[in-house]
Specification:
Length: 339
């Protein structure tokens, strides 16, 4: 890639961040005149990699879709490989092999989930590609993933379903599924979002998992995936991070503790700790990411780092990104467990 190619790619990234005042921002970024910046923008327009609306200073730029496909399927008897071959494979055919591998894995897993679990009569799949990245959607009109998990597992609140999804090894059909599909799919993409009902689960690479609450009520389940067209991520490496080859099993998980902390709540009770450590015994290593949690209560810490640890000595709890207050409470509980 030449220096100019790098520069044009950076301009595309600036446009993706915001379509306003692009010429001014490009000029500032590269130390060039507005006229020169507009020359670069005209080149991207001529390549049909971006589009523009409005005139002069009010002009708004956006990344242009270079490819887009949408197709609806009847779920009965649908094979996920068919969806991959007919819709997604042609769009990503020219991308690097590692990127194609990730897309094939994610698409087939999410379509299979819709077919086997949603109860929806049909599924709609969409793929869009621009000069920077590709996005895909798998949408059904079934019961809704969070409501289904809540019902099947007997959870008190559908928000608990998001925490369980983040842990991994979650399935409502253990005879036919391992419960690994959503967990690993969320980890291999740059951005992964599930929206269902009034709730959403978001995983962004390099950031913690989030849940959101919407005022609108989304029927069924809407899964979206996004990946850079030149991503260097290797599917096998992601699997190996959580399922080391020498162990031959999905043995490690990373749990964002903040998902157990609903808006306005503090993590203080034993019942909250019990909700958090539900199914931890299925893993050898549980990394507890405390980012976004400023403090925890004595009962919560004792239940998690003494009671659970004593009852499950083969499970290692690894707290990370703790505040001083959280760290001190954990150490006190661990000291009592060692007595």
């Amino acid at each position: 890639m030449t220096d100019k190619d790098d520069m044009l790619r950076r301009i595309l990234t600036l446009i993706d961040e915001s379509g306003n005042d692009v010429a001014k921002r490009v000029a500032h970024e590269f130390g060039v005149s507005r006229q020169t910046a507009n020359t670069y923008l005209k080149e991207l327009l001529s390549k049909k990699q971006i589009s523009a609306e409005g005139k002069t200073k009010a002009r708004f730029y956006s990344l242009a879709n270079t490819q887009r496909e949408v197709k609806s399927y009847n779920c009965e008897g649908l094979e996920e490989d068919r969806v991959w071959q007919e819709v997604f494979a042609p769009v990503v055919a020219d991308l690097p092999e590692n990127v194609r591998d990730i897309w094939r894995y994610g698409v087939t897993e999410m379509v299979n989930n819709a077919v086997d679990h949603s109860g929806s009569p049909g599924v709609i799949v969409t793929v869009e590609q621009n000069a920077l990245y590709t996005k895909g959607w798998v949408i059904d009109e079934g019961e809704g993933i969070f409501n289904k998990i809540q019902r099947e597992l007997g959870l008190y609140d559908p928000r608990q379903a998001i925490l369980e999804l983040a842990k991994g090894k979650l399935t409502t059909d253990p005879e036919h599924h391992t419960g690994e599909g959503i967990f690993f799919t969320s980890k291999v993409f740059d951005k992964f979002i599930i929206v269902s009902g009034t709730l959403g689960f978001i995983h962004v690479d390099g950031d913690q998992d989030w849940f959101l609450e919407n005022s609108s009520d989304e029927q069924g389940t809407n899964v979206s995936m996004r990946l850079s067209n030149d991503s260097e991520r290797i599917l096998k490496n992601v699997f190996d991070e959580f399922a080391p080859p020498e162990e031959f099993s999905f043995a490690k998980t990373i749990v964002p503790v903040r998902l157990a902390q609903y808006e306005g709540e503090k993590l203080v009770s034993r019942s909250q700790a019990k909700r958090l450590y539900q199914r931890f015994e299925r893993f050898s290593n549980v990394v507890l990411d405390f980012e976004g949690v400023s403090e925890i209560g004595q009962a919560f810490a004792d239940e998690l780092f003494r009671v659970f640890v004593l009852e499950h000595p083969t499970v290692e709890l690894i707290p990370v990104k703790t505040t001083e207050a959280v760290s001190q409470m954990i150490k006190r509980a661990q000291a009592r467990a060692a007595e």
